């Protein structure tokens, strides 16, 4: 690690509590270098001095380091597996589920969860915790307005039932919005709530080092109830699930033993 980046990582941790050393270095460095060059800085040192005194620049830095792309029903086939093969068992004899969408970005993922769970429970009985490191995405998620592109995988009947067109945007229906509680949470620094039946954490672990991933698999496992399910992204299979007390429930789904 170059001395300049090394020092930057320490400084950012001190300033924001975010530990960049848990993120894959080459990727992160490339993204941040292109940002500081665009802003006219020569190195991480001078860039950090600016971050310290300029909240707008700090917001831009955060925006660049967290990749926020998301969409409803992202990788639709996987959500179908959740609905058809995982949830029938998980909901059996249960009045409600404790559900967490971790690293939820702008809300498409927890709202998708609510839409799918609505086939199993009345909306008034559904409670989903949705968290992200980035306050800006949480604010957008709470507003619940989306461009058409974010809805391209949404089944027509769901689109009809749970969205209303507002000018150029689609608005998520109030009843769906009420099922989700958004909170700021850093997976790499904050404690995890316990006793979840279902945790969805997709398309964020890919940005982390192996060490950070292993740590997080254990923490997710610890915060699930026995029999609870962990749902990961489509490039994020766990190679040794048994190391963390998981068994395979389906591809990309792990059950806590
Ligand atoms: C690519 S998005 C994934 C969104 C959604 N889960 C999906 O699959 O569509 C990655 C999200 O991870 C969040 N993130 C990055 N580092 C994080 C951390 N340490 N703790 C919590 N969230 C984090 C980013 O802010 C971003 O919103």
UniProtKB/TrEMBL annotation:
This is protein-glutamate O-methyltransferase. PROSITE patterns: CHER (PS50123). It is an enzyme of class 2 (transferase). Keywords: Methyltransferase, S-adenosyl-L-methionine, Transferase. The lineage of its organism: Bacteria, Bacillati, Bacillota, Bacilli, Bacillales. The keyword Transmembrane does not apply. One of its GO terms (biological process) is methylation. One of its GO terms (molecular function) is protein-glutamate O-methyltransferase activity. It holds the Pfam family CheR_N. It catalyses: L-glutamyl-[protein] + S-adenosyl-L-methionine = [protein]-L-glutamate 5-O-methyl ester + S-adenosyl-L-homocysteine. It comes from the Bacteria. Residues 1-257 form the CheR-type methyltransferase domain. Its EC number is 2.1.1.80.
